[in-house]
Amino acid sequence: MASISDPDVRAFLEHGSRTGKLGYTARDGRPLVTPIWFVVEGDEIVFNTGGNTAKGAAIARDPRLTLCVDLEEPPYGFVQVQGTAVTSEDPDELLRTATRIAARYVGEERAEEFGRRNGVPGELVVRLRPTRVLANLDVTA
């Protein structure tokens, strides 16, 4: 089994601005997938979402999540992280996390703007703590 602490897996997850595809369970039991922006902190995948969104409500009901990050061109590859979410509403952590995520996806020049926009009351910091990590970083090999 792979690990986020594996340098190759971590480099794959942190490369550029790849989005994650987050799998969670809807209230009626349907599986759902949504794209997210994220960062890696230690061995955790970290993102933010609204507490009152479908995603936020689903995480409150059932914190088991799966995240897939993939490379959609040769040599093709993916990392799948299965785990349990832990949430926080701490305003300092939220602002720091939202700003860091924004820096990755919209650039340093707009990071503070997006951080302030997303680091507000009602938002959650979500930390996906892995229970299983699968990786194939070169499907064509």
TrEMBL record:
Keywords: Oxidoreductase. SUPFAM superfamilies: FMN-binding split barrel. GO terms for cellular component: cytosol. It comes from the Bacteria. One of its GO terms (molecular function) is oxidoreductase activity, acting on the CH-CH group of donors. Residues 7-134 form the Pyridoxamine 5'-phosphate oxidase N-terminal domain. Gene3D superfamilies: Electron Transport, Fmn-binding Protein, Chain A. InterPro entries: F420-binding_dom_put (IPR019920), F420H2_bilvrd_red/Heme_oxyg (IPR052019), Pyridox_Oxase_N (IPR011576), Split_barrel_FMN-bd (IPR012349). Pfam families: PNPOx_N. This is PPOX class F420-dependent enzyme.
